[in-house]
Amino acid sequence: MKKIEAIIRKSKFSEVKEALHKVGVNFFSYWDVTGLGNEKEGHVYRSISYSTSDIKRSYLSIVVNDDFEEVTVKTIIESAKTGEVGDGKIFVSDIKECYRIRTGEKGGETLK
């Protein structure tokens, strides 16, 4: 099993969520977060300067079976990408085991 953590633009969250549902990722956790990026310059919009040092993002935590890792990562990239600085990051790590609390069963079947 793999844990996929993605930090994406808050404005792209609905699009990413819909795309994940279309490919069969129907359960994940998410949080609204604030982070710091590499971009040091502010942006000017309608003659008002905005700081970009504190960036509003959505943080997704998804656990999938190994064979679904590539589909999930590809879906997030395709639906979250704007081509601009600050599109986000995806981290993938191994999950040793998973248990369903209600039944006590364990393993990859608990993700279905």
Notes on the structure:
It contains 2 helices and 6 strands, in the order βαββββαβ. It is of the alpha+beta class and 112 residues long. It has one domain (2-111): Alpha-Beta Plaits. The strands form 2 sheets. It has a 4-stranded antiparallel β-sheet with strand order 2-5-1-6, covered by helices on one side. Strands 3-4 form a two-stranded antiparallel sheet. The longest helix is centred in the middle third of the chain and has 12 residues, at 69-80. The relative contact order is 0.31.
Major sheet details: 4 strands, antiparallel
- Beta strand %: 25-35%
**Helical percentage:** 10-25%
Backbone structural class: alpha+beta
Low-confidence stretches: none
Tally of individual domains = 1
Round the mean pLDDT to the nearest integer and report it. Answer: 89
The SSE order reads EHEEEEHE
- Total count of strands: 6
Report, as a whole number of angstroms, the end-to-end distance: 12 Å
Give a nutshell description of this structure.
With 112 residues, the chain is of the alpha+beta class. It has two helices and six strands, in the order βαββββαβ.
Characteristic terms for this protein:
Alpha-Beta Plaits; two-stranded antiparallel sheet; four-stranded antiparallel β-sheet; alpha+beta; 112 residues; 21% helix
Give the arrangement of secondary structure elements.
Layout: E1 2-9, H1 13-23, E2 29-35, E3 43-45, E4 48-50, E5 55-64, H2 69-80, E6 88-94
Antiparallel strand pairs: 1-5, 1-6, 2-5, 3-4
